[in-house]
Amino acid sequence: MKMEMEMETRTSGLIILPQIKHQRRCILIILLPFLSILLPLIIIFHSQASFFTFPSSTPSPSGPFSNLGNPTHSSHSNLVETLTAKLKDSVTFLPLKDLRYSETPMDGNTWFMSSLTDTFEEDEPAYLYFPSNSSKGRVLCIKGRHTTDGTKNSYALAWPEALPPSATLLEGLTFVSDTYYSHENLWHGLCAIAPFVGWSMKNQCLKPSRWVLFHWGELRTKMGSWVWNLAKAKFGDVGIEVFGKGDGPYCFEKAVVMRHELEGMRDEKKLRIIDLMRCKAREACGLDPMGRGKELNERGAPIIRLTLLMRRGARSFKNEEVVKGIFGKECERVEGCVLSVIQSEDLSFCDQVRVMTNTDIFASPHGQQQTNMLFMDQGSSVMEFFPKGWLEHGGVGQYAYHWMANQSGMKHQGAWRDPIGEECPNPEQELECFLFHKDSKIGHNETYFAEWARKVLNQVRVSKLEQASKAQVTSSACEC
Ligand SMILES: *[C@@H]1O[C@H](CO)[C@@H](O)[C@H](O)[C@H]1NC(C)=O
Ligand SMILES: *[C@@H]1O[C@H](CO)[C@@H](O)[C@H](O)[C@H]1NC(C)=O
Ligand SMILES: *[C@@H]1O[C@H](CO)[C@@H](O)[C@H](O)[C@H]1NC(C)=O
């Protein structure tokens, strides 16, 4: 009988009474004031195989609270059912995106699930976990199919024994990611998934059964391909939930929610997360997770790999050939230097991992393709180029790859900012000016580029010579 019930709830997707043995415990917790009423009932439960074998000959009471002094099976069964039904109906859904916080969407509880407060642990990403002590054992439920208006999506907490009417229970662990930016962009996507990697490292390397993705509370049904490949390298080929079985609600047996990117972690933890992701990506692409080790040429000089990663269109070089020429000439002057010039758009994920695994100096215009620096060995160098106008109008975001270099153990070797270009028509209009300059092309300064390349190449040569004399350290980065 009980087996049948469970089978039925599973196949229909309608969770009416999901787990009978848990239901007793739940009702007890909720109905402490009624404990005296329920006590005889518990005795009955323990003496019965199930709810549904009550003798039909028992006289029917007129209501749930009648006959309290002399309880009968069905009166208490009715009471439990009535109260469970009320509990189910009392589950209250709130908008996923709370417009009251539209001025400060990323602060504090953020505008995503704004009524819920994060758990903070020393040096860990701020997160929400359900069910937990702080949710009083309640699970997270979401009605979240809107893709253009996060205020039309909603969330609620519910006890697993009294899920809201017509809820679907999604079993296993779910990773719920909300980003203010994007799961498509390499940099922002990395920032969105990194805290899950951090959480997993702290929690027995757990992997999710599915992802749920939101942007401003709007459902997203995919990650960008690079971001997806990186997530897959660490967590495997788990699906992205699209809530395909109707409007919901959908409740999660277990869920971790992240809405703060890397906030809360110290540099050391970020470094370990990056180490792990580098290692996993290399492994997934069939490369040695330790990198290429020490490479020497036939005369014992260290090989120095300089990669120019180019872009097309926005923020590409005005004259790529000249730039290639300048770096090529400097590379030729250093024994062991090998120059590669590569179009980032032409590379598959694994090609990008392979190229960067084999790069010591990564020179590239400012842009998301720079996120690939994470695949270089720690201590490698980054050179960055900006078009005119970024210093003045680019905001703090222009330092993203400088921070990333710092946080992933790379050396940011500075940036070149093109002094030449069209003037923005209304210099006092910050945003307008930024958009004006954002995607312009980048010129060059032969003298500057040559001196800069020479300096960095020399530094890298010295440090590779030092390394060559040291024993290679093995890393445990891939363990999780
Ligand atoms: C939850 O609360 C129980 C009882 O107070 C306690 O024993 C347990 O350690 C708590 N769990 C966590 C993860 O804090
Ligand atoms: C990167 O780290 C260096 C050394 O710790 C520091 O001086 C520099 O300000 C950092 N840069 C950024 C952009 O955070
Ligand atoms: C090019 O760079 C050199 C060396 O830094 C500098 O002296 C010169 O003024 C720059 N030229 C232009 C046109 O910016």
TrEMBL record:
Keyword Glycosyltransferase attributed: yes
InterPro entries: Glyco_transf_61_cat (IPR049625), Glycosyltransferase_61 (IPR007657)
The entry's keywords: Glycoprotein, Glycosyltransferase, Membrane, Transferase, Transmembrane, Transmembrane helix
Membrane protein topology class: Single-pass type II membrane protein
Compartment(s) where it occurs, according to its Swiss-Prot or TrEMBL record: Golgi apparatus membrane
Ranges that cross the membrane: 26-45
Residues in coiled coil: none
Domain Glycosyltransferase 61 catalytic, residue spans: 304-383
Gene Ontology terms: cellular component: Golgi membrane
Example of a GO MF term: pentosyltransferase activity
Pfam families in alphabetical order: Glyco_transf_61
Protein's UniProt name: Glycosyltransferase 61 catalytic domain-containing protein
